[in-house]
Specification:
Elements: H1 12-31, H2 36-47, H3 53-62, H4 70-107, H5 125-139, E1 143-144, E2 150-152, H6 153-156, E3 189-191, H7 197-205, E4 210-219, E5 231-241, H8 246-261, E6 267-274, E7 277-286, E8 303-312, H9 314-320, E9 328-335, H10 336-344, H11 351-354, H12 357-360
Parallel strand pairs: 1-4
Antiparallel strand pairs: 2-3, 4-5, 5-9, 6-7, 7-8, 8-9
Bound molecules: zinc ion.
Length: about 375
């Protein structure tokens, strides 16, 4: 480390040597500076008023100089002072420059990096089909009605003309809520097996004319396989007014099926049985995929059974206080998953509930 020597010899050569030594020390020390702290130390070491190197030079060289040399030593000390000040200023500037450069670098936003993608969600395929169906019926003047998924025996069965212990109840494997033995049967709770209870609830609240569709989740005690699921969706429709006939039922469903599957689709009605409609029918549509020639979705038959329907049984009107002499109506219902499976050629109903993104992405 450089220290300011005492001068014995004030000859120009000796002064040159001392000056040169000091300047090369200045050069070396300034070159080694890294960081703000070292920069501050450097300034203090050379320029501090008390005992800085310049002060020492002033004291040990100039003040001690013999009279004849004073002038020359004074000039040299002034030149040194200027050089040291310049050097310190240069180092400080360099430091603050590299500091702001570092700051800028830290704050830089690399706009070439790929952003974070936040994809929009899309409707589940079952909901897409459900909404499409709702749209068809809303255009025909129907409104949407909903009801509870935990339903009473009365709404799920009794008011729909399933008397207690009637064998028709056995066609719907029902999930009952436990520990209700002490309640009267009509009040016992269960997971609704169909959306039909919403028809009863709607008629209790509305006076005819009634036009409602009832979409929703239903539950059956079915073991899951490719075509069965303990949870699935239905959509039902109900129309009650004066002079509603089976022709209205046929016309409505034919229009709905054409809206969904195109104008070439045909409908076929087969006699069937449901406790809450009389007469009842199962309805098949001509296969929209092969046009009736036979293919995999229609199991080579050319027809696909899609709906259950019928004229509302007068007994049902009795439960909701409608006069069966005055009013008539029809009701229909279908499974939404079944429709979605057909529409998208899905061969396993479990796919809809598996949460497998590879499956669901196809409907995005
Ligand atoms: Zn077909």
């Amino acid at each position: 480390m450089y220290t300011v020597p005492k001068l014995e010899d004030y000859s120009p050569e000796a002064l040159d040597r001392a000056t040169q030594e000091l300047l090369s020390a200045l050069e070396q020390e300034s070159a080694a500076i890294t960081g703000a702290k070292a920069c501050e130390d450097f300034r203090n070491r050379w320029m501090a008023r008390k005992n800085g190197i310049l002060t020492q030079v002033n004291d040990t060289w100039l003040k001690a100089a013999p009279g004849p040399s004073k002038r020359e030593v004074g000039q040299r000390v002034n030149a040194l002072k200027q050089k040291v000040e310049e050097r310190v200023a240069a180092v400080e500037e360099q430091m603050s420059g590299s500091a702001s450069e570092a700051k800028l670098k830290a704050e830089t936003l690399d706009i070439t990096l790929p952003g974070i993608q936040r994809p929009y969600g899309v409707k589940h395929p079952v909901l897409q089909v459900l909404d499409e169906l709702i749209g068809v019926f809303v255009k025909m003047g129907y409104s949407v009605a909903e009801g509870p998924e935990v339903e009473s025996d009365y709404y799920n069965f009794e008011a729909l003309n399933f008397p207690p212990n009637h064998p028709a109840r056995d066609t719907q494997d029902t999930l009952f809520i436990a520990n209700q033995e002490r309640r009267p049967q009509r009040d016992r709770l269960l997971l609704r097996t169909h959306t039909s209870p919403v028809q009863i609830r709607s008629m209790e609240q509305l006076k005819p004319p009634v036009r409602v569709i009832c979409p929703g989740k239903v539950h059956r005690n079915d073991a899951p396989d490719a075509t069965h699921s303990p949870v699935f969706h239905q959509i039902e429709g109900l129309c009650v007014d004066t002079n509603i006939t089976f022709a209205d039922l046929k016309g409505t469903l034919e229009h709905a099926m054409k809206s969904l599957f195109g104008n070439d689709v045909k409908t076929r009605f087969f006699p069937s049985f449901f406790p809450f409609t009389e007469p009842s029918a199962d309805i098949a549509i001509s296969c929209p995929f092969c046009g009736g020639k036979g293919c995999r979705p229609c199991k080579q038959s050319g027809w696909i059974e899609l709906l259950g329907a019928g004229m509302v049984d007068p007994n049902v009107f009795g439960f909701v206080g409608y006069d069966p002499q005055k009013f008539s109506g029809f009701a229909f219902g279908m499974g939404v998953e079944r429709l979605a499976m057909m529409k998208y050629e899905v061969d396993d109903i479990q796919q809809f509930f598996s949460g497998d993104m590879r499956f669901l992405r196809q409907f995005a």
